Amino acid sequence: MARAGLTTERLVEAAADLADEVGFENVTLSALARRFGVKDASLYAHIRNLRDLRTRVAFLAGGEMIDRIAAAVAGRAGKDALAAFAGAYREYALQRPGRYAATQIRIDQDLVADSPALRRTAEITYGMLRAYGLDEPDLTDAVRLLRSTFHGYCALEASGGFGAPRDVQASWDRAVAALHVALEHWPRNDHEEPSDE
User: Fold this and answer.
1) Prediction pTM value
2) Of 83, 78, 74, 87, which Cα lies nearest the Cα of 124?
3) pLDDT tens digit string along 3-43?
């Protein structure tokens, strides 16, 4: 029987592979069922719906991505850690475009709290940034700066959006160096009332 051996893990892995091949937005239950030679209804014993499948792909991809980042930053600090983090992020985004797109979807916060991969992502990211002496709310602001810079750069690079003759890697290296300077000289909010003196 074609459906023999179907598991949630196999379906999610296949959906992630399909995302890399045809784009995350093109992953459907019908396309996944065709890959296994089964009817759509056969998938419902393992996944609830398309949203559930896409969320599971996001968790899978997020785990893969943070594993690469963790290996890259191990034993590094400061600018070296930032460059290693950035490089691993970019490499994953370009090598696994469908999986990477999955990591950008909005996920219910209750599910995020239960995800070991996403907790590990926060620990590694915030740990790297604490080395710059940042605390909340600056940590959250810095995470948003890094994520938007890395994501924007990777999206433009993947779509061929950089047309100038300047080497793309050289520009990336300069961008990461600029982020390091920004983190070292992070603007501090002075919440104290001004003195009357």
Assistant:
1) 0.88
2) 74
3) 557 899 999 999 999 999 999 999 999 999 999 999 999 99
